[in-house]
């Protein structure tokens, strides 16, 4: 014999006081991040929240470059999310990097292509992956991203070394000119100026 359905009245239902705020923050994060796979991203969001880790959330909404795009791709906002999550570690296990990449619903083939640009082993220096990630970004939409000159200098020097065709003297001269510009911008380099150049 089946059990009768239990009918609850409003007085019997207890809503945890923090639940509405948690759901509100989650909803805002989902709207700002626009994950390709909401369920996969939600699992990563709540897992990070429960562990006190940085959340996989963009700082602001990015308008997609092509409205017909049906697949997720690395953007400046998503790269910033990864940087926030992985930069404190310095050196990251490739398996953890792949997991964070997957949490953002990014295609694994794109990460594999980035990792093939250098001879990485089981562990990678995060700043090098960041530099390679910056090199494959599409033209960003919105305001200019700012990075400290020291970070930009490291990234540029690394990429110039990987390229192998830029003489070291030319790299130093270029960075000297950028340092002057950065000094006028409180030590910050406007990243968009370099990402949008042909």
TrEMBL record:
A GO term from the CC aspect: motile cilium
Transmembrane stretches, start-end: none
Source superkingdom: Eukaryota
UniProt-listed SUPFAM superfamilies: Dimerization-anchoring domain of cAMP-dependent PK regulatory subunit
InterPro entries found in the cross-reference section: ROP_DD
CDD domains according to UniProt: DD_ROP (cd23019)
Record's keyword annotation contains Transport: no
Predominant localisation class: other
Family under the similarity heading: Belongs to the ropporin family.
This protein's name: Ropporin-1-like protein
